[in-house]
Amino acid sequence: MEEVEVVVAHHERATLRVGDVFLKIDADQTRTDVEVEAMAMAPIPTPEVLWRKPPVLALAALPGTALGRLGEPSTASPAAWAAAGAAARMLHDAPLPPWPGRSLDELASHLDGECEWLVTNGVLPTDLVTRNRRVAEAALRPWAPVFTHGDLQVTHVFVDTDEITGVIDWSEASQGDALFDLATLTLGHEEHLSDVVAGYGTDVDLDVIRAWWSLRSLLAVRWLVEHGFDPSSPGCEVDVLRSRL
């Protein structure tokens, strides 16, 4: 009998693995709607949808292994990281999904609120928050919207040797900033940024990518804490914020 592995679980959603099948259970079916439609539209490999019976979505496991994990050195080759950059470029060149992402005003308001919470509750030192808030400003500029994955972290990109076998977890896909995806992919793995940019194949503003590292980390801390994760683990979000000083 196959064992049931809990991949991730919190009060919003849970993912279980049984053999070669992943079962995603989400309280918000809108996220699942987005995930299914985005995977159907994406021009890069995605998991096969086996069946859907709300609130459960069954997906086939991808071959290969994750590109890396936040807080751990990646064992993937530079060519694999470049392939991830090339996959991101292919996605960003695809037709836009029909649903919009967050606006600049929404992002700025969210950032202000999270920074205030971090300082008021003594979660992070004021100077750390202030410095990263200043760095994050560079990301808050107009951009030409592209088809973004929205959560392109290293654990969501699967590789076999030097080839991308698929990308998972599309529930945050939307129209958005291409550099946000590149920043999410390289968060905590700055040493692989040049490989990703080489694979992406066009000039990018590295200062904006670094700004997104600060912005994403500032926005993530409260959510991680409230959902039972530790953003202060070595190499994770708090370390990313400290590296900006």
UniProtKB/TrEMBL annotation:
Keywords: Transferase. It comes from the Bacteria. This is Aminoglycoside phosphotransferase. InterPro entries: AGP_Transferase, Aminoglycoside_PTrfase, Kinase-like_dom_sf. Pfam families: APH (PF01636). It comes from Micromonospora globispora. One of its GO terms (molecular function) is transferase activity. Coiled coil: none annotated. Residues 38-200 form the Aminoglycoside phosphotransferase domain.
